[in-house]
Amino acid sequence: MNGKTMEKPWHLRGNWAPVLEEQDATNLPVRGDIPKTLNGTYIRTGPNPSSGHSVHWFFGDGLLHGIRLEDGKAKWYRSKYVDTVGFGEDPLAAGHMGKLDCSKANTHIVSHSGKIYALNEGAWPYAINQELETIGAENYGGKLTTAMTAHPKICPETGEMFAFSYANFQPPFLQYMRIGADGELKQLEPIDIPQKVMMHDFAVTRNFTIFLDLPVVFDLALAMKGFPYEFRSDAGARLGVMPRNGSNADVRWFDIEPCAIFHTVNAHEADGKIIMTASRMGSWSHSDFSEVGKLWRWTIDLATGQVTDEQLDDRPGDFGRINEAFVGLPAKFGYLMEMDGDGNAEEPTYGNALLKYDLQSGSSKAHEFGKSVRAGEPTFVQSGEGEDNGYAMTFVHDEASNQSSFVIVDCQNFDAEPIATIALPERVPYGAHGNWISLANHS
Ligand SMILES: [Fe+2]
Predict the structure, then answer these.
(1) Which of 45, 170, 214, 432 has the highest Cβ tally under 10 A?
(2) Are strands 273-281 and 134-137 parallel, antiparallel or unpaired?
(3) How far apart are CA 164 and CA 201, in angstroms?
(4) Residue 433 C-alpha to ligand 1 middle, in angstroms?
(5) Is residue 3 predicted with pLDDT exceeding 50?
(6) Cα of 10 to ligand 1 centre, how many Å?
(7) Distance 88 CA to ligand 1 centre (A)
């Protein structure tokens, strides 16, 4: 361990380190051609402690990075903090725990029912606009009395949004929520699970929701040491299947091999079975990243109650996305961010490629950026007929030149050069999740 390593934790070094100034640049240089059909804003959030320091990567203030594309031009790039209650403060500080408008808003961007939200699973959503301005905390007219996951799912057929919370410190340790296409909270359902576990994501199908009761267990004694969860395989692991409009009494629990999952890719129903894909780790620790996610598939037979699981690929990858018109339906393609591989205990290093999977066969194609370039989450944007007719877009960073860029890859020509690469005026730290917000749908 060298002196530099001793000095700062991984999330404050290199391109994980926060940028300290908000940016606003116009008319950015483009290599290649931005499709003229892309009119909107890609917005990504990520932890970026405004003080320059945070105890844990998860605890940094949410800094939005937005890039506006219009008429084939990169009109602007902007970075702007989400102006939340608790901005600049430690979320574990006295008085903040359980205060639902105290958000870091640093995990994901989702649009639903005409609104755009910056999300963090420990708090209420924060509404923002396409200029990256903060509108305020959203509690659905007072009906949302708990936090909301940063990974809600929107049904492409009904427009409903499904979400959950694991924020409670006493039972129920899980709550499920269903928000109509009209933006009204229709159901807030307590779900019984035996203990408080960290639950970052879940999955839905056309008729069911799938909860991940995995053994990343809460322990208050650990909070004193900086992070309150740890992996305990003897706590067991279960998938909970509930009709989307069902209740706690309807949940069927299926035991699986203990594992940890940050992100599902998708789930769907076929022949009385539920099929779910996700990036799976055999275990997880907040301080040791020697194992990273790989693509797995679980098949739950609703008639026999049996669950089978299989690893689809041994190449590490996470942050999986699909064409969102196929959420809960049999999507053929998944887009993952390569991870740097097992064995790097110090930081969860992002890889040098984006991966396009055939989710049925497990085969994949890679879009390689080169050894010094690390990529972020690939967000899919549809451009025409056909599931993979569209683009994967993300921020990338070249550690050799210290140059960050925004890239657009043609998903039907995935291993070709990006169709457009937009050079950015400032470093964009490795972050969390983002989405494309069309100008047609939002002002
Ligand atoms: Fe996530």
Answers:
(1) 45
(2) unpaired
(3) 9
(4) 6
(5) no
(6) 19
(7) 21
